Amino acid sequence: MADDDLPAEAELGAEDSAVPKVIPEDASDDADSLSGAVVPYDPLQRYLSEIRRHPLLSREEERELAIRYKEKGDIEAAYRLVTGNLRLVVMIARDYQRAFKNLLDLVQEGNIGLMEAVRNFDPYRGIRFPSYAVWWIRAYIIRYVMNNWRMVKVGTTQAQRKLFFNLQKEKDRLEAEGFRPGPKLIAQRLDVKESEVIEMDQRLSARDLSVDAPVNEGEESTMLDFLASKDANAEQTVADAESRELISRKIKEFGETLTGKDKVIFDRRLMAEEPLTLQDIGDEYGISRERVRQIEERIKKKLKAYLLSVSKDMEDAVVDIIR
Fold first, then answer.
1. Would you state the CATH architecture of domain 236-322?
2. What digits encode the pLDDT tens for the residues 84-143?
3. In the CATH scheme, what is the code of domain 1-32+39-149?
């Protein structure tokens, strides 16, 4: 799974200790009751009408179907477990309509959690399937809300998720009790840091701003037009190219001033794409590796001094050579 802490996230929802009551089978459907009438199409009511056609399952039926799926991989049994609990998903999704208005999106995500619950359910543990499935359903819905509530994610830790769903409710509760809902008191009530309360309060009160949105209504200019570009301008590009060319020419001129071992070490150690080792050069001249290293350091210092005599701006450009 992409989020390995999904089941734990369900603890952040309200009334987790009990399985919500499902939609009664005999509930009326306004869309279906208007025979022949021309009414606007309501996808939510249509979906509720469809799921009512699937009967609820008894405890014995749940256990039998779960065993068939676990032991035999019976897909039909898994299908009946899912369809028999679709109304449970709707009831849980309604708890989060305040945070995310599109109920069908929440139901769709909750249905994925329901299928994940079927896949992981152990019928031999002695608990009913809906009591187990509620955790997976809540977890998937909560993850969806957190990822899509805004363009910028506002809840990436457990404390932030707890605050996301409970901050406003705790504020209302404190005010009803006659307390001023300050960050310190809220932090104590929700068992989080005061700084996390302040940060989440600021995030929830702020609005997203797209850099592609027009600055003023009816204008083509966007916020992006006023942001500084990270790309180098034409003048800077030309200047950099000229600087690199100058450095390359001066390094070549410096190399022409060297002779003997210094020339070999400069060409075959400092400037070569595949430099020789200190030992290779030492064996060629019958000297130790340490002596070759000392000569190399001396050449680097000479090169640095030579380039700085031409321009102080070259020091950073040749730092890899003189180190």
1. Orthogonal Bundle (1.10)
2. 999 999 999 988 877 667 888 889 999 999 999 999 999 998 889 999 999 899 888 877
3. 1.20.120.1810
